[in-house]
Amino acid sequence: MKRCTRLVMALTGAGVAFASTAKAQRPPLLPEKDVAVLANELSGETAKRNLEGIARFHRQRGSRGFHEAAELVAERLRAYGLSDVAILQFPADGKIFYGTQRSRPAWDAEVGELWEVKEVKEVKEAKDKNESGDGQPAQKMASYKAQPIVLAEDSESADVTADLVDAGEGMK
Q1: Cβ 130 vs Cβ 158: under 8 Å
Q2: In whole angstroms, how large is the CA radius of gyration of the chain?
Q3: Residue 2 and which of 18, 83, 138, 145 are 20 to 30 A apart at CA?
């Protein structure tokens, strides 16, 4: 019983100590008036709605989607009462360096698909063996239009047919 009481007292003391420390801290980056405006507007529902808005865009650096997402954020900040909102743009041509990083040109994807293509002989053998599968010579595996995140950043335009390699778990 004494052990339990001591634990409760210790936790209560720690709670009081942390609570007073939290009250003493001031917001490090924004003026009080800006923090007050944000505090009156913040909610889980609003955060979710904003995230859903941003997630609609394919946000590869320098792309149209990235710019549209930035515009959405700027619009929301203005709606929250912030007036000094700006979207900064920097040239990126693959030659300019920012610190130690070479700029990479803007990248806008328009279309991309991945198809699994089977040889006609392979399809016929699968049908003859009554194996599972659709028995079709080609099956769409991924589409940029349906799910933009499937396209590898900086992909190049190409029409390529190559062997499929099973890398297992990809751990070795």
Answers
A1: no
A2: 27
A3: 18
